């Protein structure tokens, strides 16, 4: 059966549309299948370094009080001194927190219960007030990175920032807290040997980044991207979506930039 020449462009267009719509659904399934052992290793050996950053906003009115719990963001523990843990996250995560008297920012460990209910009363406030408050140790707009700390007697994993520069096609895993979810681990690969640059919203800073195919979404900002040695190879800044709001690629500050940032902190 021959296809008329005038129908070929239409078939090509339909094929492109089908691929555009369904490839983002297929890619995560493929990555999960091909990297199942890697994902399980991250869950067993590294996931307890994953933290959630939550802000509580208090509203006290006439005979009524309520608390609003933010959707939260992510971070990763990389250092411990006594009972104080230090974690990396993205600066824009910290910058987005409201700096007003009626707020409180706390750190939740990977195993802490998250009620996930907004605008509730003092019961919710009491629940979240048990978690340690955040202390901002060091920030840099140049890297969009921040170091935060918190005190805890719990035993959490402490990750290492790799000394090796990430390479094209390296296998990586993301562990984060996407909105409405906790401790999600996905895997993929670094997607290009090209050096990518990303500008902040007002064009003041230009960041060198790496792109990858480990699925991330809102709430993943500040989370760790790990290599197969379970070292931090990147800190997530955000991601790219297609026209249908489907994940295309993740963006992260690479380890060489993180190391430079840590040297400035010292």
Q: How would you characterize the overall build of this protein?
A:
This protein is of the alpha+beta class and 266 residues long. It folds into two domains: 37-45 and 160-265, Thrombin, subunit H, CATH 2.40.10.10; 50-151, Beta Barrel (Thrombin, subunit H), CATH 2.40.10. Helices cover 23% and strands 36% of the residues. The chain has five helices and 14 strands. The protein has helices at 8-34, 36-45, 91-95, 122-129, 255-265; strands at residues 50-61, 64-69, 73-81, 84-90, 103-108, 135-140, 145-151, 171-176, 184-189, 196-199, 206-212, 224-226, 232-241, 247-254. The strands form two sheets. Strands 1, 2, 3, 4, 5, 6 and 7 form a seven-stranded antiparallel sheet that branches. A seven-stranded antiparallel sheet has the order 9-8-12-13-14-11-10. β8 and β9 (184-189) form a beta hairpin. The longest helix has 27 residues, at 8-34. The relative contact order is 0.18. The mean pLDDT is 81.
């Amino acid at each position: 059966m021959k296809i008329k020449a005038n129908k070929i462009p239409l078939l090509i267009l339909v094929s492109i549309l089908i691929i555009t719509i369904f490839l983002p659904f297929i890619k995560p399934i493929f990555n999960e299948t091909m990297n199942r052992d890697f994902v399980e290793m991250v869950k067993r050996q590294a996931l307890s370094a994953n933290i959630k950053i939550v802000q509580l906003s208090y509203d006290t009115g006439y005979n009524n009080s309520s608390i609003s719990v933010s959707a939260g963001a992510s971070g990763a523990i990389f250092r411990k001194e006594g009972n104080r843990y230090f974690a990396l996250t993205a600066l824009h995560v910290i910058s987005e927190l409201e700096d007003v008297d009626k707020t409180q920012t706390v750190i939740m460990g990977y195993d802490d219960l998250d009620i996930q209910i907004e605008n509730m009363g003092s019961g919710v406030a009491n629940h979240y007030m048990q978690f340690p408050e955040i202390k901002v140790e060091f920030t840099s707009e140049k890297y969009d990175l921040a170091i935060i700390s918190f005190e805890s007697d719990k035993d959490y994993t402490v990750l290492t920032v790799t000394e090796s520069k990430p390479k094209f096609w390296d296998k990586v895993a993301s562990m984060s807290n996407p909105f409405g979810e906790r401790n999600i681990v996905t895997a993929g690969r670094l997607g290009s040997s090209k050096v990518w640059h990303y500008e902040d919203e007002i064009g003041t800073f230009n960041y060198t980044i790496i792109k990858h195919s480990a699925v991330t979404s809102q709430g993943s900002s500040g989370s760790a991207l790990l290599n197969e040695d379970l070292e931090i190879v990147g800190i997530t800044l955000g991601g790219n979506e297609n026209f249908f709001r489907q994940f295309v690629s993740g963006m992260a500050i690479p380890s060489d930039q993180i190391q430079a940032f840590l040297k400035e902190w010292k």
